[in-house]
Amino acid sequence: MSDICRGRVAVVTGAGRGVGRGHALELARQGACVVVNDLGGSVDGTGADVGPAKGVVDEILALGGEAVANTDDVADWEGARRLVETAIGAFGRLDVVVNNAGILRDRMLFNMTEAEWDAVIRVHLKGTFAPTRWAASYWRDEHKAGRPVDARVISTSSTSGLFANPGQSNYGAAKSGIATFSIIAAKELARYGVTVNAIAPGARTRMTEHLGGRPAPPPGEWDDRAPENVAPLVAWLAGPASRDVTGQVFLVGGGRIAVARGWERGPGVDHGARWEPAALDDVVPALVAEAGPGGRPEEQPQARSAEAGPGGRPEEQPQARSAEAGPGGRPERMTGA
Ligand SMILES: NC(=O)c1ccc[n+]([C@@H]2O[C@H](COP(=O)([O-])OP(=O)(O)OC[C@H]3O[C@@H](n4cnc5c(N)ncnc54)[C@H](O)[C@@H]3O)[C@@H](O)[C@H]2O)c1
Predict the structure, then answer these.
(1) Of the residues 103, 125, 171, which should be mutated to test ligand 1's pocket, given the most ligand atoms within 8 Å of the CB?
(2) What is the pLDDT along the chain (337 residues), one digit of tens a residue?
(3) Is the separation of the CB atoms in 74 and 99 below 8 Å?
């Protein structure tokens, strides 16, 4: 067995179940010491239970790995600080933060309550920012003290945000926000030896089981939608070999890994003076027509099954190697901003 994370210390949020549990177990298998964070609530974020985090710690210890539990709410400012301090207190350092914790409160926006909006934005967006913020200030201090930093942040986006899934305006806004947050953080933290990437996973978990999809196959058969399939990319991103990969968003599920490409400047026009609004009658429709159908939801079939897969089918993910995706995401091409 390989041990590509030997000697590293990782925090995984929402690691008591689903995709995050897979990350924690794989990181431990690869030699990392793991802080297993999980509040232990229900899918909609209500409630709390120490059982899920403790259960995964027990699994890691049974494998011969090292782990401790933390049950703080990742979106709580002081809770996020305690989470980072738990790693440093238990294992003496912190190298990797995997922001994975998440909840769902799906609703069409005309019916969405303030509480449904706030809860989802809070757990995903602030719950990604807060642990990253405390880890980043720790790594900056380490760097300034002359100690070498080779650290990682890996956060969790979703095709729901990247491809705009109706019925999830709260969740999708948070998830596309996490993708952009990651790209900005990659630019800010590059000088301190920290890479920042995001993943958009696809797997069968309690969050997605209601969507139908393929049931689990009989034991022993390849399970394309097993949550553990997302973990190898995260373990690789957590390890030293990924040090030149930053500011990227990956689609991952089953055996598929693809680089997501983001916004780009499309067709445009410069009038050289302030427009008369009525003159745009022809201009804007012509620009939209020239830009092509990319932006229209009905022409993006993968947008309908937000959590059902990573953009899913291999033929929809032609760029399987990040070198093929070009330099758009590398910080040295993005500085100057
Ligand atoms: N399953 C998929 O196909 C899929 C697709 C796209 C994105 N995602 C994202 O992947 C991540 C993991 O989802 P999952 O499918 O494994 O769901 P899950 O519900 O099985 O696991 C999420 C875990 O996060 C924990 N959690 C929730 N709020 C928390 C908080 N405030 N603090 C600490 N822990 C908290 C929950 O207790 C739970 O154990 C989420 O961010 C989700 O949005 C999943």
Answers:
(1) 103
(2) 579 999 999 999 999 999 999 999 999 999 999 999 999 999 999 999 999 999 999 999 999 999 999 999 999 999 999 999 999 999 999 999 999 999 999 999 999 999 999 999 999 999 999 999 999 999 999 999 999 999 999 999 999 999 999 999 999 999 999 999 999 999 999 999 999 999 999 999 999 988 877 789 999 999 999 999 999 999 999 999 999 999 999 999 999 999 999 899 999 999 999 999 999 999 999 999 999 986 454 444 343 333 433 333 222 332 333 355 555 443 333 223 2
(3) yes
Residue type at position 285: P
3-class DSSP state for residue 202? Answer: coil
| Domain locations in the chain as residue ranges | 9-262+301-334
127 lines ligand 1 (CB under 6 A): yes
The tokens of 117 are what?
């909006």
* Contact present, 164 and 297 (Cβ < 8 Å): yes
Q: pTM of the full predicted structure?
A: 0.90
Decide: 202 in ligand 1 pocket, CB within 6 A: yes
Q: Are strands 66-70 and 33-37 parallel, antiparallel or unpaired?
A: parallel
User: 9-262+301-334 architecture in CATH?
Assistant: 3-Layer(aba) Sandwich (3.40)
